[in-house]
Amino acid sequence: MDPSRIKEKIGRFRILVIGRANAGKTTILQRVCNTRENPEIYNSAGKKIDPTVLMASTERGEHDIENEMVFRNNPGFVFHDSRGFEAGGESEFDKMKAFIATRSKETKLKNQLHAIWYCIPMDEASRSFTEGEIKFFSQCDTGSIAVMVLFTKFDALYDVAYAQLKSMGKSMEEAEELAPKHAEESFAIGSQLKFLYHSKDIRRPPKRHICLPNMDKDDADCGPLMKCTAGTMDNEVLQKLFISTQQTNLELCMKYAVESFLGVIEQRCGLGYSL
């Protein structure tokens, strides 16, 4: 199906964003939508919520996962925000589970959840999984929804990598240059990923993960996140919708356009057409 027809039938790509406080969620969404502006918030009935009313509700500890966040710069994405499940946050966890279950039962694809981004910041001293994060990946049935872990603020690990490289005899210049790569390589074989994908406590691991450093910078690159998200999707229709909605990775659009074209050519050749 042509992407323009998909957009006409489904409309917007819907993502649930989960993460504890200060996980860098808003910053990432701003980068994805190529804007510095805050999102506009709409309730489940589609009515725009006054920011002052929303702030007052937040200060009272109220939060509605049904609310939709939309950035004017790219209204093709609609985001739902679920706060992290801190100790004692049983109510928040139950609301999130019910939200996912309800959306999964929607008969219309446009009302379903199309992806889940779970944001885990790497700037805390322990950098270990919280009880709530373990609970999500062990108890929450997300069905066929593409689930990804976004390790945000990953550049916080560069200082650790720098110190390790210095202890290995590298000069200051060499250590600074090699730190990002060393941090990624160390993380790839480290305890966090082993736990996330191979622990008996994690019965429903994510489909993929990605490390996101320096997303607060003006030149932050969302391309890898877009490519990784597209790669998690088994549903070709949703994949085409996502690719046509995102505006930060032209290379990704071209790649899938060429693959789609070659698929049509291959199909025609198989049916006896000549080029």
Please explain how this structure is put together.
The chain has 11 helices and 7 strands. The protein has helices at 3-10, 25-32, 51-59, 90-104, 131-139, 158-167, 172-188, 191-198, 223-231, 236-245, 250-270, and strands at residues 13-19, 40-42, 68-71, 74-83, 115-121, 146-152, 208-212. A 7-stranded mixed beta sheet has the order 2-3-4-1-5-6-7. Strand 5, helix 5 and strand 6 (146-152) form a beta-alpha-beta unit.
List keywords for this structure.
alpha/beta; disordered C terminus; 16% strand; single chain
**Count of helical stretches:** 11
Largest beta sheet: strand ordering: 2-3-4-1-5-6-7
CA-atom Rg in angstroms: 20 Å
Beta-strand percentage? 15-25%
Cα distance, first to last residue?
Answer: 22 Å
Please tally the β strands and state the result: 7
Percent of residues in helices comes to 40-55%
Residue ranges: pLDDT <50 for 5 or more in a row? Answer: 261-265, 271-275
What is the structure about, briefly put?
The protein has helices at residues 3-10, 25-32, 51-59, 90-104, 131-139, 158-167, 172-188, 191-198, 223-231, 236-245, 250-270; strands spanning 13-19, 40-42, 68-71, 74-83, 115-121, 146-152, 208-212. It is of the alpha/beta class and 275 residues long. It has a seven-stranded mixed beta sheet.
Please describe the topology of this protein.
Elements: H1 3-10, E1 13-19, H2 25-32, E2 40-42, H3 51-59, E3 68-71, E4 74-83, H4 90-104, E5 115-121, H5 131-139, E6 146-152, H6 158-167, H7 172-188, H8 191-198, E7 208-212, H9 223-231, H10 236-245, H11 250-270
Parallel strand pairs: 1-4, 1-5, 5-6, 6-7
Antiparallel strand pairs: 2-3, 3-4
